[in-house]
Design brief:
The complex is a heterodimer of chains A (157) and B (135).
Chain A lengths: L2 H19 L3 H18 L7 H26 L17 H12 L2 H12 L4 H8 L3 H22 L2
Chain B lengths: L1 H12 L6 H25 L4 H22 L3 H8 L3 H6 L11 E3 L5 E6 L5 H5 L1 E6 L3
The chains are: A mainly alpha (157), B mainly alpha (135).
Chain lengths: 157, 135
């Protein structure tokens, strides 16, 4: 199995989604690595199925979020910053604008954009993954695009 | 609709790209993690037939042992369960239905003594001796 090629094709979209689902780059890397390995374990003979990896990323991010919340509730305060400087992605002006615009969307909307537009998942796959109907997934995507259009119209003028 | 298509195309062009340094670092880290996973997978993929064979042998030995025990002559079992007077004192017998006294027979076996239900004077005195071999 050619992991280098698979990573070259898919790492960016997976990393973006993992980053979107977690608080720090380190958490995102952990979640991403575990998700790919978990997907690979199901069928070691072939490259991991992309929708499956997205699904595992989401599940593991939720689990991690719960653990962090429990730790924080217990410790009340933490010295570790919740966000770190994002260095994993190439820094481009227009991309920066896009990411900030995506960040302004409600999570359920931006998640749909990332999964459909860059993750190449169909609305049916997104629906299955998020436990929503195919129509709801499509509807969220349309709403997200409309809001992004309004935002980018002013920012990327 | 055209607005949406234009925007989608524009967004696709802005697709996130990871830096080559991150790409290399994460891929290497992933491969290291994968190597750690491999040995445990190899163990889990071992054939189960040696385990099944060992279990069968152990079960066979157990059954054989059981058969030998049950095939023993009654006298042999009685010898093993033979009790003396001291044993009675160590393990008090509790009658199941009524207070039946226990006596030790001449042959060394323990007997429970049941009173007869019959009403005649002769039979009132008659006692039935029932050997208790279930100690």
């Amino acid at each position: 199995m050619d992991w280098d090629q698979w990573m070259a094709e898919n790492l960016a979209r997976l990393a973006l989604y993992a980053r979107q689902q977690t608080r720090t780059d380190n958490d995102a890397d952990d979640v991403l690595q575990e998700a790919i390995i978990e997907a690979w374990k199901r069928e070691p003979q072939k490259c991991p199925d992309l929708p499956l990896v997205f699904s595992y990323i989401r599940r593991r991010a939720i689990d991690l979020g719960r653990k962090i919340k429990v730790r924080q509730d217990f410790a009340e305060s933490s010295d570790v910053p919740l966000t770190s400087i994002e260095t994993n992605f190439e820094q481009r002006d227009d991309e920066h604008v896009l990411r900030s615009s995506l960040g302004e969307l409600p999570p359920e909307l931006s998640e749909t954009v990332v999964l459909h537009l860059w993750g190449s998942l169909t609305f049916r796959e997104i629906g299955e993954m998020l436990s929503i109907s195919q129509n709801t997934a499509a509807s969220r995507y349309r709403i997200a695009l409309e809001r992004l259009r309004q935002t980018l119209k002013t920012k990327l003028r | 609709m055209n607005h949406q298509n234009d925007l989608e195309e524009r967004l696709r062009q802005l697709a996130p790209k990871t830096s080559s340094e991150y790409q290399t670092r994460f891929t290497q880290r992933f491969k290291n993690a994968l190597e750690k996973e491999e040995p445990s997978r190899k163990i889990s993929r071992l054939p189960l037939w040696p385990l099944a064979a060992a279990a069968s042998i152990i079960a066979g030995i157990f059954i054989l042992n059981l058969t030998q025990t049950t095939n023993k002559a009654p006298s042999e079992i009685a010898t093993q369960k033979e009790l003396n007077h001291d044993a009675i004192e160590e393990k008090p017998f509790i009658p199941r239905s009524f207070d039946a006294p226990i006596v030790l027979g001449d042959n060394g076996k323990i007997y429970r003594v049941f009173k007869s239900n019959e009403t005649s004077d002769e039979t009132k005195l008659k006692r039935r001796l029932i050997a208790v071999n279930s100690f």
